[in-house]
Amino acid sequence: MRIAEAALGLVGSISPGTPEELATALVKPHAPNLLVNGDQPGAWLRRMLLSTHKPFVLALDEPETAASDLVCRYGLVPSDATRRLGCSCASIVPCLRLPGALVLRADPHWHEPLVTAGEMARHLGIEIDPGEIERIVAEVTAAGLGPETSDAAQLDEAALALVKGALSAYADHFSGAALDRITWGRELFLIDGQQPATGAVDVTGRVRALIYGPYISLPPGNWLAEVVLGFSQEATDVNFVVDVLSAGSQLSVTSIRPPERGVFPIDLSFTIGEENDRPVEFRVVNERAAFDGRVMLGHVTLSLQHDRVTPRLNF
Q1: CB–CB of 191/211 below 8 Å?
Q2: CA–centroid distance for 92 within its chain
Q3: Global pTM?
Q4: pLDDT for 265-305, tens place per residue?
Q5: From CA 314, how far away is CA 310, in angstroms rounded?
Q6: Neighbouring-strand partners of residue 214
């Protein structure tokens, strides 16, 4: 922003969540120039960047480091930090393939601030003297405005396992690998009273969602989910519906009547469309009122089916 101000004059900043918010800022600007930023670029913004061929910058940190930062510095519980970063990572994945993207990584780009600043200015078409860039970088460095270091090791073992399961695949993907399997731990899901689904749930009572969540977005594509559930002997008398929803629509559904006490995997296939950036919800529902029994979530694993063609929209 300092570079833009030096070259263009006064610059305002906005983090729009909808196209209407962006339109309002453009119609009633508080400054002659506008910087648009955010940590969860929606489908509408991706569509706009693609249709206008505008250059933009993607600044990426290591997801595990960012999670530690949210927990240790800002006081979020690990599950909330993981949900927030999972949604952010999912929204960034389709941006990586847009032609106007300049992708920067906190490491190594921050270690070469002068080179990085010059690269950003050139990519965004900002005409500025190299000496002015050097002066701005020196002022920012002297003011100590660089990123504060956070160490993922600050998280306890359980929190680190939760974060790694949900976010490590994105970290590898941002480094050039194919998007690998994502694991959502039971701590990300909820039971009655919106409590974490870390223990067995008593199915006694009315028909209801016994386990639900985690309200995390996924990148567009064809997905295969494996929901691992454990059942008590008493629960073998009950049929359970397992489904996945997003944006108010049921994407996939199946059912299971456990044949015996034990742990069973349930598979669900579903598609996240290019325009769907809403969070995903899995549910485990007892099909009828129950008098006894317990069910417990192990985890949910998600695999992007790379060998299948994802429906694409023509912008």
Answers
A1: yes
A2: 8
A3: 0.88
A4: 999 999 999 999 999 999 999 999 989 999 999 999 999 99
A5: 13
A6: 281
